[in-house]
Design goal:
Pfam family, one (chain B): ATG101
Structural class of chain B: alpha+beta
Strand order of the largest sheet of chain A: 1-2
Helix content of chain B: 25-40%
Radius of gyration of chain B: 19 Å
GO molecular function, one term (chain B): protein kinase binding
Oligomer: heterodimer
Number of helices of chain A: 32
Order of helices and strands of chain B: EHEEEEEHEEHHEEH
Distance between the termini of chain B: 20 Å
Largest sheet of chain A: 2 strands, antiparallel
Structural class of chain A: mainly alpha
Shape of chain A: globular
Number of strands of chain A: 8
Subcellular location (chain B): Preautophagosomal structure
InterPro entries (chain B): ATG101
Number of helices of chain B: 5
Main location (chain B): other
Number of domains of chain B: 1
Chain lengths: 854, 218
Amino acid sequence: MAHFDTEYQRLEASYSDSPPGEENPLMHVPEGAKSQWHHIENLDLFFQRVYNLHQKNGFTCMLLGEIFELVQLLFVVGFTVFLANCVDYDILFANKFVNHTDSSKVTLPDAFLPVDVCSARIRDNAFVIFVLIISGVFWLHRLVKFIYNVCCYWEIRAFYINALKMTMSELPYATWQEVQARIVEIQKEHQICIHKKELTELDIYHRILRFKNYMVAMVNKSLLPVRFRLPGLEESVFYTRGLKYNFELIFFWGPGSLFENEWSLKPEYKRGGNRLELADRLASRILWIGIANLLLCPVILVWQILYAFFSYTEVIKREPGSLGARCWSLYGRCYLRHFNELDHELMSRLSKGYKPASKYMNCFLSPLLTVVAKNVAFFAGSLLAVLIALTIYDEDVLSVEHVLSSITLLGVCITVCRSFIPDKHMVFCPEQLLRVILAHIHYMPDHWQGNAHKYETRDQFSQLFQYKAVFILEELISPVVTPIILIFCLRRKSLEIIDFFRNFTVEVVGVGDTCSFAQMDIRQHGHPAWMSAGKTEASIYQQAEDGKTELSLMHFAITNPQWQPPQETTHFISQLKERVHREAAGASSDTHPLSLSESEPRSLVANLLAGPSTLTSIHFGHDSSLTNQAGLSDGASALRSLSPNSGSLHLRGSLNAAHTSTMSKAMAGSGTDARTVSSGSSAWEGQLTSLVLSEYASTEMSIHALYMHELHKQQSHGELSRHTWHRQDSDESSDSIPDEVRSEPNPRHFPRSHTFPTTVPSPSAIPTSASCMSSTTLGQEGAASNRIGQQGFTNSSSDSFGARGRVVKSARGVPMGGWAEEGQAARRHHETLPEESSEDDMPPHIHKVNAVCV
Amino acid sequence: MNCRSEVLEVTVEARQVEEAMLALLHTILLHRSSGKFHYKKEGTYSIGTVGTLDIDCDFIDFTFVRVSSEELDRVIRKAVSEFKDALSNSGSDGMGQISLEFYQKKKSRWPFSDECIPWEVWSIKVNVVNLANEQERQICREKVGEKLGEKVINVVEVINRHEYLPKMPTQSEVDNVFDTSLKDVQPYLYKITYQITDSLGTSVSTTMRRLIKDTLAL
């Protein structure tokens, strides 16, 4: 037999079938759960706590603060009861004499009643016992909460130290953006969230602000009954903490609420099928909660009074003027809040706006009152001066009965009067002031512009910016009013609420159910009058009012430069930024970009806006508002008025450029991710840059907000004038100024923002479709005019601003937060307005089901 | 929320319920089980072998593969037959859902009990139909077999994705990840629960728990 030489050979290696587990089978090394932070169950709560701990400046501060609060509460209650029951005031007032053997001096302990008398007095007084019981229950509640919190936050502390590698001592000086960058970083390593490999900033925001976004959207769409028109009075806003608590109880977490848990809406609410039944159920729940509120009313009332007494008496005593001071109302906070804006961002914005806002309000002091106040102050002042002079001469005057008290009273009287006398050096320039305010608060109804000097505007602004005294008063009457609002106003809206939650909830992979507005998708929720004309496909019902989507998007993109939005959004942002930058740059070419680096941006805005250039721009605006073309020059001049301010833009740009260069270097050199560098984990300079950047971010946002408002104004003016030209007779139906409603009770105007909520209580599609028609035509016209304006900028490439470091990274193919696929599905579903019942059985757009039905 | 959830839906005849459920649950568990770990020295372990077994269904034209572990089979069978009984006793239109939840235990400090954190939940929705005659039954028998085949591929696709799985534990932690009570196989910790029709709302106890938790967290 021939010997074939083949390549096939017998394997030399001896393989013996050793039974498994005996010899040396495959050995594995367990990774072990090195960190306990992988796969956290309730990420919502987790991120909220991480945020809270950051806001409270670390564990120790929080702990101490809470302990002191508990002690303070105990002290205040105890002390009040003691003062009321255990002091013999006759001795203090010297109406009764104590006969001491050793000395004639009255000592404080003499005035105390003996323990048994004291306790007997307390026991006899039912009211005191009632108060004591309530405070006791409250205190115990606080104590339990405190202990629970300590346990929870101890874990978060460990998370900061072990996972984020931040010590508690450096926490107060770290910005939230930095913390967030680290969280994004460690997700890769620990997989906190198991759905995706990477976490985005938006995911974190969505989780922290899930319910707040819903509330903001509901206020934006005027769904919540917080505005009331009492007969004989003008429209007023009533929104208190108690009411807010009840809303949240009903919608989000109370028994039988719409949400199953923190992150998902109950499935039946996602289907349109039985919306009427669900609305009935919601209505009856609201009724029951309203009744419960009514029953608990006395308890809550007492509690509110106690609470107000405890928390404000000391303040009022210390500075009586504080009651005259103003604060941003709760409604204002909701109205002015962007989607996806954390508390500290909102607060810093509003605090910056506080000064101009109070200045603005002070412009409107009644001259009559001023005259009276001046004279009263004069007389009171002279009396006071005499009394004080006498006292200085001989202090025995003080011992004359009521002299001391009249000195005090006169002092208070003068303080009050002074608050009615305007600052001598103040100039009446409401329009400018309002503009400065707008730069910080970013939102205001359209009709305020140009009407800043009117009393109505002031009244409406005072809804956002109310007297502290009014605030406290509202809180006090809240227990009585809340059940009424719940039972009579909110209950009627139950169907709309059900529809709202169904239409505006999207499920985002890895986040859960969120408010679709919070996705800040221009296409889905943009408003054609706010620069997203042509891009938006939203119906009137879906458009966010006041340009909320657009402004929120800008705000989020500016505060989170690392965020990578989906493609179209990136386009929108870069385009807008380019335009703003160009306008600003065109005006300030003569000023050196860095020349203003030392000065504070905020004061810059203020100075600038008060400067003479604004005046001309306003003047311009007045003249040219009628003609269509002049609109853009108006905007340009308005921006030019901001020109030196744009130095900060440059600064930010150059900083950003430096930043990017280090980033790219680091990336090229060591291959570290850009985020590590930007989070400043390596060097302090990184930290510094991020801090500086976040400070300038607010200025940049202010400029953008002003610009967008300006453009919006032109656009709506343009539309208005066009309409008067084209169809002068039927102009009323097409209300080109969306928010005219807020103030004008004029029935001719079709209230745009109220379109859905108020006019369609019963399923009928007539009014909506009508107004829809008119506004879409408007939108197209707006788009057209907009395009004319844009022409100059569209072809300018982004390289001239590449240095600004926004790093318009080519948007990745991966849709973040499930934009692409969810978005489309959601859009399809949005078409089912509540009026339609044929599509009732359409599946919810939020199904992430991998199933095929058999 | 921090867990994947997959939904499978099947429509079967009453007598097929048990087999269909067994087929799907076993298929999932086959991929979510490993051999017993034998920890050697500090830090290493070897994995034992797992046998597989083909099971032919009586009422469906279908054969599925399961882990050849009688113990595991017994546990699953018990759960499924409970589900089947509940389904037949419910008297309603025969809708039910059985879910297989994989979870991980996390040790907590003293005042709190151990947390069970799910990382993957498979929900199988069952729709029971009544068939009129033998011919329809025959068709159904084949059709359900086909559909189950699709489901199995579906399951395998999901499992093939590289998604989060608990990390391999060290010896001390193995009980937190794997169910080590069985002799011959070691599936990830799992829990089988079922629910007949969509009983509305969460139970009172969970609502109460949430209420308390929420007031505390305020």
